[in-house]
Every structure is written in structure tokens, then in C-alpha cells.
Specification:
Blueprint lengths: L2 H9 L16 H17 L10 H6 L2 H13 L1 H6 L2 H19 L3 H6 L1 H7 L8 E4 L9 H5 L20 H5 L5 E4 L3 H25 L1
Antiparallel strand pairs: 1-2
Helix pairs in contact: 1-6, 2-8, 4-6
The structure holds iron/sulfur cluster (2 copies).
One iron/sulfur cluster binds next to helix 9.
Amino acid sequence: MSVWLVTGFVAQSPDQKVFNKKTQATDIYQICVLLLAIVLLPVLIVNDLGMGDPYFCKYICPQGVLEGALPLSAVNEGIRSALGKLFSWKLVVLISVVILSVLYYRPFCKWICPLGAFYALFNKVSLFGMKVDEHKCVSCGKCAKVCKMDVDVTKTPNSTECIRCGKCISACPTEAVRFQYGFGLLRKTVDENAKIENKTNKNETKEEL
Ligand code: SF4
Ligand code: SF4
């Protein structure tokens, strides 16, 4: 059982219409958590042996409370009596995540999890991406409306927020959206660069004439 599963159980149905409000897509919170709790604090604040605390796991991630402290303390009096302020704090975090999950789509994955921020960095160069055929697109907006990560695939097909769920593909009435595999992304970039270069060369030639 994980935070993802619990929050999923609470309110993560793809058909959820009442809650799960649309939010501004951004990686900034995750990047802050990544830099602060995973990189800076463990490097800057160390003990006598030169070791830093795992700040994210210790103070932010509620997974340990959910999978360890809660079930163990429920069956063991000794563990229950040893629970302190840190447990109370992590319990508050866990409850907050569950409540936020009723209102927003996967808040922990979207705003807090540093792993998400790390993976997102590779979206732009991933060999598995999204592609929109602009000749087929009729700008109906259905793809953006259905996207739970608040991505408009027509504007940013390989947004760092995209989780490649494919819902935009199913929602598109003209089959304009599709997955793109392999080195197609790279080829596309090269082709586009070549086109831009050709265009520039033509313009320069016209000007010279
Ligand atoms: S694949 Fe999923 S997350 Fe990515 S743009 Fe489409 S609907 Fe949004
Ligand atoms: S759903 Fe398809 S046709 Fe509509 S805006 Fe998106 S890509 Fe274009």
C-alpha cells in the first residue's frame, strides 16, 4: 500500500468531475523540494561523522507513517508509547495529502515528490513522447480538457508535467494526438532545424538579389 494508492482510493478516479480541480501546471514546488530536502540540507547539515539526515524521508514523505508506524503501533504497545512529535508531524502531512487528494489530482506526485521532478527533467529528451498532427487538429480543446496534469498537448506535447497516460489520445476526435517512440523526436528536431536553416538561407538569397 502506498501514498499513491491511498490517495488514489480517496479521489483519483479519471472520471472525477466534482473535485480534482484544474490547477496551474508547474514543477517549481517539486524542484524546490528536490533541491532543498534531497540535495542542500543533507549536504550542508551533517553530523560528527559527516553524514546528513535523509530530510525528505524523515520530515516530508508520509509513506513510512502509512506503511510502518501506523500498522506497527496498532499492534504493538511498545511502539505506540515510543511515538513522538515526528510521528505527529508526519501524520499531519499524511492527512493533509489525503484531504488535498480529494480536491486535486495526485497532489503528492504533482507538487511534492522529488522523484517526479527528477523524471520530468527527461521528458523533453525522452524516446517515448507525444506528437500532435497539426493538419488533423481542429482546435476543439478536448485533449487539454481531459488532461488531469493540466497539459495542453497541442502547445507543449512533451511538457515536463505529462505522464504519458494517453487520455488526450482517446479524447481526440480526429486522432491528431499519438505517442511517438524511438528517435523520432530527435529526427523531428533535426528536420525542423534543417527547415529553419533552409528558410533562413532562402531569405538571405532573396535579400542578396
Ligand atoms: S498523455 Fe496524459 S498527461 Fe500527457 S498530455 Fe495527454 S492526457 Fe495529459
Ligand atoms: S482533441 Fe485533437 S483535434 Fe481537439 S484540440 Fe486536441 S489535438 Fe486538436
